[in-house]
Write a structure and sequence with these properties.
Blueprint lengths: L18 H13 L6 H14 L4 E4 L2 H11 L7 E5 L4 H9 L3 E5 L1 E2 L2 E4 L1 H7 L4 E4 L11 H10 L11 H10 L3 E5 L7 E2 L2 E2 L6 E5 L12 E5 L7 H12 L7 H4 L20 H35 L2 E2 L3 E2 L2 E2 L5 E4 L5 H13 L15 H4 L15 H8 L1 E4 L7 H17 L1
Parallel strand pairs: 2-3, 2-6, 6-7, 7-10
Antiparallel strand pairs: 1-11, 4-5, 8-9, 8-14, 10-11, 12-15, 13-14, 15-16
Length: 418
């Protein structure tokens, strides 16, 4: 690296908060309405319009969204949910929270998507859902996923743990596709936006995501024949607010103080303070996606010149949200990968790894809610291979052109020197 480039301090993924978000939050605070209210309802409406669904429910986190997707489907004890081994814990934890058994499947060779042949083999009469993960913002092959679940319809036996869940399972007549789109807001696949592809979808608005509400998430779903979307929405509201049949906004109307508790349920609603951030983030979102695409183009050029494997964000029939930039160093060991990350940190550039496969995590090595009572990474060689030499470079909209060039210069010199 040339000596005239001063060392910088580049964070991995700081939130991009403008004066627009700050002003909206201030207005929200002054309004006297800070819990779930008009801003949350507006954000729900706008997200549904953006992704192309009839309804959206904003919640406290993507994990809550994933869990409630499964609860709406009536999935619980005695059911199995298939999850890729190569993902973050929330993908599996949500299934465990509802009492289901997690069945892990390996990745494809040199591709972080799940092995779809392994998916087909893993489906049994107990399987009620599969959770594809749109890693880094790149949408999975849903044609293949739907082909698999349709091919296994003869095995499917509805077992909904609720009236609504049973009716949805019967209407689908197959294993439900419940997408983990934590990274993928704004991604497109065959002309459809993420959120309008899977049966149910969860998004994350955590501080490190492309669009943030500090914490927060959302659930959306496709129209299901014979099922009323308003009924699904009502049950999301009940599940997220103690089973209370009126939220604070409804109770604020004249004479509407009384409410009922339908069931003793959960508490994971989004606040208007969070929604205030999200509304103004959504105003800026297309510009933010464009900036990510510009940075990705520069990273792609670097990787091609260094002959490094990297995530493919854009193609003829798909477009990513550009959430993460994953690079793999061919032939490098886990030890060498760690050395590169440390050397980047010494240059002031914070990198990360996405992901350490779940079978390597203590929680899943021995777990009653994992099929077989636990897992061993040796049974998921493709997932381990993807992990062992992967490095995630900073990719966010606060990076200047000079920052990006500094990252490229640092990474190029370090990789060439290894």
């Amino acid at each position: 690296m040339s000596t005239d480039i001063a060392k910088r301090k580049i964070s991995f993924s700081p939130p991009d908060i403008s004066e627009l978000e700050i002003a909206e939050v201030a207005d929200c605070l002054r309004s006297g309405w800070i819990t779930t209210g008009p801003r949350t309802k507006e954000l729900e409406k706008r997200i549904a319009e953006y992704v192309g669904t009839s309804k959206c429910v904003c919640l406290a986190s993507a994990t809550a969204s994933e869990e409630l997707n499964l609860r709406i489907l009536g999935i619980g004890e005695g059911d199995e949910v298939i999850v890729p081994a190569y993902t973050y814990s929330a993908s599996a934890a949500a299934a465990i929270h509802v009492g289901a058994t997690v069945v892990f499947v390996d990745s494809q060779k040199d591709n972080p998507e799940m092995d779809y042949d392994a998916l087909a083999s893993a489906i049994t009469e107990k399987t009620k859902a599969v959770i594809p993960v749109d890693l880094g913002g790149v949408v999975c092959d849903y044609d293949r996923i739907y082909q698999v679940v349709e091919s296994k319809k003869s095995l499917f036996k509805p077992s909904g743990k609720s009236d609504l869940g049973m009716r949805i399972q019967k209407a689908l007549g197959r294993v439900a596709v419940v997408a983990d789109c934590a990274h993928a807001l704004g991604s497109e696949w065959h002309g459809k936006k993420a959120g309008s592809i899977a049966d149910f979808t969860s998004f994350s608005f955590h501080a490190v995501k492309n669009l943030t509400t500090a914490e927060g998430g959302a659930s959306v779903w496709r129209d299901i024949d014979g099922i009323d979307n308003d009924e699904i929405y009502k049950w999301f509201q009940l599940y997220s607010l103690h089973g209370q049949n009126k939220d604070a906004l409804a109770k604020s109307q004249l004479g509407s103080w009384e409410y009922d508790i339908i069931e003793p349920l959960y508490k994971c609603n989004m606040t208007d303070i969070m929604a205030a951030i999200g509304l103004r983030q959504l105003d800026r979102y297309e510009g933010m996606l464009k900036r990510r695409k510009e940075i990705i183009a520069l990273y792609d050029q670097m990787c091609e010149s260094l002959k490094l494997d990297h995530i493919k964000h854009y193609g003829e029939d798909f477009s990513s949200s550009g959430h993460l930039y994953l690079v793999r160093i061919p032939g490098a060991s886990d030890v060498k990968r760690r050395e590169i990350i440390v050397k980047m940190a010494e240059k002031g550039v914070s990198c990360n790894v996405h992901y350490k496969p779940l079978p390597m995590m203590t929680a899943y090595k021995s777990c009653a809610h994992v099929k077989g009572g636990g897992v061993d990474i040796k049974d998921f060689p493709n997932a381990y291979h993807l992990y062992e030499n992967e490095i995630t470079l900073p990719l966010h909209t606060l990076l200047s052109d000079e920052d990006v060039q500094y990252i490229i210069d640092c990474f190029t010199d370090i990789v060439k020197g290894c």
